[in-house]
# Entry
Amino acid sequence: MKITIIVAKATNNVIGKDNHLVWRLPADLQLFKSHTTGHHIIMGRKTYESVGRPLPNRTSIVITNNPEFCVPEGHLVAHSLEEAVQICIGKKLDQIFIIGGADIYRQSLPIADELLVTEVYAMPDGDVFFPEIDKNEWTNISTTSFKKDEKNQYDFDFVVYKRNSK
# Structure
C-alpha cells in the first residue's frame, strides 16, 4: 500500500493559521480533489473540524484521542496513526492519503512513500507548519508550475517527491 502525504505549504512551511488555510488557491484545491477522490484520507481531528464534513467520494479516517468522537456513517475514527494505517491495510487498499494536520504530517513523514506538495510562493503568518523535507531522503520527480491569476492568490508549484531507496 502506497502512503502519500498531500499538503500545501508556504515557502516558510506554514500550512495554516487559526485552523484555516491562509490563501485562496482554487487550482490547488482541484489538484487535491483529483488526487484524493475515490481514496481513503487520513487526518487529525482539528483538520476534520476545519473542513467541517467528510469530503465527497472519499472515506475519511479521523485520528483523535477522544473516545466519544463520532463521524458520519461510512467514515471511521482511529486513535493513532498506526491504527488508521492498520485499518487501511486490513481493507487491502492500494493507496492512502495523509491530509494533515501538522502532528499527523510529522508522524507520517517517516512511513510515507510519496509527497504531493503544493509549494506556495508566499511567506504568510501562521501557527501550523509542515516539517522540513529532507532532500537526502526525497527526490523531486516532477514539478508543475501555476501562476497567480484572478482566482489564485499566489504562484505555486505542484511537486511530486518519491522517497529515496534506503
